[in-house]
Automatic annotation (TrEMBL):
It comes from the Bacteria. Keywords: Membrane, Transmembrane, Transmembrane helix. Pfam families: Transglut_core (PF01841). Residues 226-257 are annotated as: Disordered. SUPFAM superfamilies: Cysteine proteinases. Residues 506-578 form the Transglutaminase-like domain. InterPro entries: Bact_TGase-like (IPR052901), Papain-like_cys_pep_sf (IPR038765), Transglutaminase-like (IPR002931). The chain crosses the membrane at residues 12-32, 48-65, 72-92, 98-119, 126-143, 149-172, 193-211, 727-753. It comes from Filimonas zeae. This is Transglutaminase-like domain-containing protein.
Length: 871
C-alpha cells in the first residue's frame, strides 16, 4: 500500500531551502559561540552543525508523508540505545570508550534537536514561536560568556537571532498557505520574501535608531574600562584599557580569563627620587593605580570597592589641575595607618600614551602638581605632573625576588624581613578593618584554598614567614625536578565556564599570569587571617645605567600584586608572580629624559576675556596666581594682559596652535621671563598688588588649556558608584527589548488595521476610495477569521451579507465594475460607494463580541495569511 503524502515535492523543497537552511546556519553560529566557552564540545562546531542538519532534513522529508511522530521517535530512540551499547564493544580502552560515548551523546542531542525541529516545521503551525523563543534563550546563555560589553557586541549577538525569529514565523506561514499548483510559484515566493526582507530591515533599522542610546548606556555602564587595544583577539583580558582618545590607563577591575593580551607601546616615563642608604643606588617602586579589595564570584573579577574602609588611594585628575598648582589630600596619609619607617618621596611622571586624566604613583601618594613639558620634548611627551608619596622604607620593586649576587640588595631584603617579623599578630587593628580585609567567600571551592594555605604555611610562625612560604610554594619543583608553577599569558580555562579559575590554577594546570598569582596569594593570606588586598598599576624595571632614577614604562609592564597590612608599618607590597622565563622584554629606552625643567616665576590661572590671534595677545581674568612659589587667591578676579608671541600652547592631547584659543576658555599661563626673576614675593600683598607690579603685557612661555568637564569624556574613578557587570541586568535589558519586539509583532495586525481603516474613511466615490474601502473590508473580515479562501468575490460577499446583514454584495459589484470596466458609475452606484463602509464596519462589530475581536487582532497568523494568500 502506498503511503500517502502530506506535502508535495514543491512544499518539501521550499521547507528545506527556506526553513531548514537558515535554521542550520543560525544553529552553526550558536554552536561556534558555545564551542568557545565549553571545552567538552572540542571546538568541532562544523561537524556538530552537520549532525543538526541531518536531523532537520531527514525529518522534513520523512514527515512529508503520513508517518506518526511517536512511532518514528520511539524507533529512533531504540537505534540510539543499541548504538550507545555497542560503543564499549568497538572502542579500545576505558578512555577511548568514554570519549566516544561523549561524542555520541553530542551527536544524539543535536540530531534529535534537528529531528524535532524538522517535524515542527513540517506538521505544527505554532512550533516556530516556541522554537524562536528557545533559540533566543540559547543566545542569551551564549552571549553571557563574553566580556566585551559594547553596543556593537550586544547588537551583533542578538540581531541575527531576533531577525531569524521574525523570518521563520513569517516564512513558515507563507509556505503553509501557498498554492503549489499556482503558475510562477518561484516568483510568487521570491516577491513575498523580498518584500518581507525590506520591511524587516526597515523595522530593525528604526529599532536600532530608537534604542541606540540605550545600548550605548549599557556599554558605558558595564563596559567601562574594557580596552580597545587588539580587540580582535577573543576571550582575552588586558591589564590596561584604551580610552576613546586612544590613550591608555589602568582598569578599575580585572577578570580571570583564558589569556592575557599585552602591548609593547611606551606609556610613560618617570623620575623617582628614591635611593638606598648609599644615596647612589636607585630603589625602584611599583606605580599604583587602583586597589582591588572585592571579588565577584559570579564573574570571577577583582574589583575596586567604594565602601573600602580607610580609603588611602589618592586619585586626582591631573588634566583638571592648572599647571604648577597642586592638589593635596592628607587624609590618605591618615588612612594608611603608617607611622614607622616612612618618608616623603617625589616622582615626576611624563606621559606618552597614559591618558590625560590618569594618575599613577607609588603608594601612598597624596600630592599632584601638573608640570609643563619643555618645547624640545613636546613631540615625545603630551603632559606631565609631579607626585609626592608617603613611602615605606621597607618597600621596593625588588620585593622578594631580588637579583641574586647583589650583596647590598640581599642585605636590604634580610633587614626588611627582620623588621617585619616583629609583627606576630593583628590584635591592635580595628575589628571591622580586619574583617573586611580578611573576608573570603563561604564556599567549598575556597575551603580548598584555605586547606592548601594551612598546609604550606604550617611551619611559618609570623605573617611575614607565611608570606614567604607562599612564595616558596610558587617557586617549588615537582617530583621530576621541574617547576611546579609556570608563568604564561595563556593559562586556558576550565572545562566548565562557571568553574573556579583560581582552583583550576592552584590545583590543576598551575599556569597563569600576574592576576592569578596575586589572587591566589590574596585568598591564601586571607584564609589565615592576614589583612591583604591586590594593587594594580605598573611593574617598575631598572633598565637605565645612564640616567639613574629614570624609568620607562611599557604596556606589558601593567601588573597586579598583593599588599599585606602590618600594624604600624601600613600596607607593604609583595609580588608573588614568578618570573616569565619566555618573556621578550620591551626595547631598551633610547631617548633622553626631559631634564632641566625651567623655573616658572609667574603662573596665572583663569579664563580668557579677549584674544587677538594675529598679534598673539590676550587678556584673562585671573582667579589664582602663583608668584615665586607664593600662592595668591581672590574672590574677585583681576585682569591680566598676556603676550603669547613665544608661548607654547598645549592641551591634554599635546601641542596646539595659538589660534585655537577662544574667549571663555579656562587656561593657565606661565612665564619664565628674566624680567620677573629678580622680583620677590611678599605674602602680605594681595593678588591685585602683585599684578600691578608685573610687566604689561606679561610675557608668557607656556599656555595650557584646561578642558572643562563638559568637553571631555567623563573619567570614572573608584570614588564613583562603580558596579560590576551584572548579567541579570544585561539579561533584563535583552528581555525588555525582546518583549518590545514581541509586543510590536502582536500589535502589528491592529497597527495595519489603523492604517487601512484611516484610508477607507470618508464619503468619496472615487475609484481610489472604493479600492481602500474594499481592501479594508476584506482585511477586517479576514482578521476576524472570515477569510475568502478560494471563494469568488460574489460568493464571498453573499456569504458575508447572510452572516452579518450587510450590503457587501452590492458594494462588491460596484467595485468590480470600477476595477474591470471603463464605464462611469451612475449616481446610485456612487451613493453605494459613499455610504457603504461605516455601516458595514458597525454591523460586523455588533455581530462579533469585543472579546473575540480583541483576540482576533492579536493573531499575527491571520495577518500573514491575508498578505500571503494568492489574490
Amino acid at each position: 500500500m502506498k503511503i500517502g503524502n502530506v506535502h508535495n515535492a514543491k512544499k518539501v523543497l521550499a521547507q528545506l531551502l527556506l526553513l531548514a537552511v537558515p535554521t542550520v546556519a543560525l544553529v552553526a553560529y550558536l554552536l561556534w559561540h558555545l564551542n568557545l566557552s565549553y571545552q567538552i564540545l572540542q571546538n568541532d562546531w562544523q561537524k556538530q552543525a552537520l549532525y543538526f542538519a541531518g536531523g532537520i532534513a531527514g525529518a522534513i522529508i520523512l514527515y512529508s508523508y503520513r508517518f506518526r511522530f511517536i512511532t518514528t521517535a520511539a524507533l529512533l530512540f531504540v537505534v540510539y540505545y543499541y548504538a550507545y551499547r555497542s560503543i564499549g564493544n568497538v572502542s579500545v580502552g576505558e578512555f577511548d570508550a568514554f570519549f566516544a560515548s561523549v561524542q555520541f551523546l553530542i551527536f544524539a542531542i543535536l540530531f534529535s534537536a534537528g529531528w524535532i525541529c524538522g517535524f515542527g516545521f513540517s506538521r505544527s503551525r505554532y512550533f516556530t514561536v516556541f522554537w524562536a523563543v528557545f533559540l533566543l534563550a540559547v543566545q542569551i546563555v551564549t552571549a553571557s560568556k563574553t566580556h566585551t560589553i559594547t553596543a556593537s557586541a550586544i547588537i551583533s549577538s542578538f540581531l541575527p537571532t531576533l531577525a531569524y525569529a521574525v523570518y521563520i514565523i513569517y516564512t513558515a506561514e507563507l509556505i503553509r498557505n501557498m498554492n503549489p499548483s499556482e503558475r510562477h510559484f518561484g516568483w510568487f515566493v521570491f516577491k513575498r520574501l523580498a518584500g518581507f526582507g525590506l520591511v524587516l530591515a526597515a523595522l530593525f533599522f528604526l529599532l536600532l535608531q530608537t534604542f541606540n542610546k540605550n545600548f550605548q548606556a549599557v556599554e558605558k555602564e558595564w563596559g567601562q574600562g574594557q580596552g580597545k587595544y587588539d580587540q580582535n583577539r577573543s576571550n582575552q583580558e588586558s591589564m590596561t584599557k584604551e580610552n576613546r582618545d586612544g590613550s591608555v590607563g589602568n582598569k578599575d577591575q580585572t577578570q580571570l580569563t583564558g589569556s592575557l593580551n599585552k602591548g609593547k607601546r611606551l606609556v610613560f616615563v618617570a623620575k623617582l627620587d628614591n635611593y638606598f642608604e648609599d644615596g647612589k643606588t636607585p630603589n625602584p617602586l611599583y606605580f599604583t593605580a587602583y586597589y582591588y579589595t572585592r571579588f565577584d564570584t559570579l564573574t570571577q573579577t577583582f574589583e575596586t570597592d567604594t565602601k573600602m574602609p580607610d580609603n588611602d588611594l589618592f586619585k586626582p585628575d591631573p588634566s583638571k589641575i592648572p599647571i604648577y598648582f597642586a592638589k593635596t589630600d592628607s587624609t590618605v596619609i591618615k588612612n594608611a595607618h603608617a607611622t614607622k619607617a616612612r618618608k616623603v618621596v617625589t616622582a615626576d611622571i611624563y606621559k606618552t600614551l597614559l591618558g590625560p586624566s590618569e594618575y599613577v604613583a607609588p603608594s601612598t601618594a597624596f600630592f599632584c602638581q601638573p608640570l609643563p613639558v619643555e618645547a624640545s620634548y613636546k613631540d615625545q611627551y603630551k603632559s606631565a605632573y609631579r607626585a609626592k608619596m608617603w613611602v615605606s622604607d621597607l618597600n621596593s620593586a625588588y620585593f622578594i625576588y631580588n637579583p641574586a649576587g647583589n650583596q647590598m640588595l640581599e642585605q636590604f631584603q634580610e633587614q626588611r624581613f627582620k623588621t617585619l617579623r616583629q609583627v606576630t599578630d593583628f590584635t591592635g587593628i580595628p575589628e571591622s578593618f580586619k574583617q573586611y580585609y580578611t573576608f573570603m567567600p563561604k564556599d567549598p571551592e575556597y575551603d580548598r584554598i584555605k586547606t592548601l594555605a594551612q598546609e604550606i604555611t604550617k611551619d611559618a610562625p609570623t605573617p611575614l614567614d607565611k608570606m614567604l612560604a607562599i612564595r616558596d610554594y610558587f617557586l617549588s619543583k615537582d617530583e621530576f625536578d621541574q617547576p611546579l608553577f609556570k608563568y604564561t599569558n595563556n593559562p586556558g580555562v576550565p572545562g566548565m565556564p562557571s568553574a573556579n579559575k583560581l582552583n583550576y590554577f592552584l590545583f590543576e594546570n598551575r599556569k597563569g599570569y600576574c592576576a592569578y598569582y596575586a589572587g591566589a596569594s590574596l585568598f591564601m593570606l586571607r584564609a589565615m587571617g592576614i589583612p591583604s588586598r591586590i594593587a594594580a598599576g605598573f611593574l617598575t624595571v631598572d633598565r637605565s645605567s645612564k640616567n639613574p632614577g629614570w624609568y620607562w614604562f611599557y604596556e606589558d609592564q601593567a601588573h597586579a600584586w598583593v599588599q599585606i597590612f602590618f600594624p604600624g608599618y601600613g600596607w607593604i607590597d609583595f609580588d608573588t608572580t614568578i618570573p616569565d622565563l619566555e618573556a621578550h622584554e620591551s626595547e631598551q629606552p633610547d631617548g633622553t629624559p626631559p631634564l632641566n625643567m625651567q623655573q616658572a616665576y609667574l603662573v596665572a590661572d583663569g579664563h580668557i576675556t579677549s584674544v587677538d590671534t594675529t598679534t598673539k595677545k590676550l587678556t584673562m581674568s585671573v582667579e589664582k596666581l602663583l608668584f615665586h612659589d607664593q600662592n595668591y587667591e581672590s574672590t574677585r578676579p583681576d585682569t591680566l594682559s598676556i603676550d603669547g608671541a613665544v608661548a607654547q600652547v598645549s592641551a591634554d592631547s599635546g601641542a596646539v596652535p595659538f589660534s585655537v584659543l577662544r574667549k571663555g576658555m579656562h587656561i593657565t599661563a606661565a612665564s619664565f621671563a628674566e624680567a620677573l626673576k629678580d622680583m620677590t614675593a611678599n605674602p602680605q600683598e594681595s593678588m591685585a598688588d602683585v599684578l600691578k607690579r608685573v610687566p604689561k603685557p606679561a610675557p608668557a612661555d607656556e599656555i595650557k588649556i584646561i578642558e572643562e568637564e563638559a568637553t571631555q569624556q567623563p573619567h570614572k574613578n573608584m570614588f564613583e558608584n562603580i558596579q560590576p557587570v551584572n548579567w541579570l541586568k544585561v539579561l533584563a535589558t535583552v528581555l525588555i527589548v525582546a518583549a518590545i519586539l514581541i509586543v510590536l509583532v502582536f500589535a502589528m495586525p491592529w497597527l495595519i488595521w489603523q492604517v487601512i481603516h484611516a484610508r477607507a474613511k470618508g464619503n468619496k466615490a472615487t475609484p481610489q476610495s472604493a479600492y481602500h474601502k474594499y481592501r479594508a473590508a476584506l482585511y477586517y473580515l479576514n482578521q476576524l477569521g472570515y477569510s475568502r479562501h478560494q471563494k469568488g468575490p460574489g460568493d464571498y460577499a453573499r456569504d458575508t451579507d447572510a452572516r452579518f446583514g450587510t450590503a457587501f454584495y452590492t458594494f462588491s459589484n460596484v467595485y468590480q465594475k470600477l476595477k474591470y470596466s471603463k464605464q462611469p458609475l451612475t449616481a446610485s452606484e456612487e451613493a453605494v460607494v459613499a455610504q457603504f463602509y461605516t455601516p458595514f464596519i458597525q454591523s460586523v462589530k455588533k455581530q462579533v463580541p469585543l472579546r473575540k475581536r480583541t483576540a482576533a487582532f492579536l493573531n499575527i497568523y491571520n495577518t500573514i495569511h491575508y498578505f500571503t494568500q494568492p489574490k
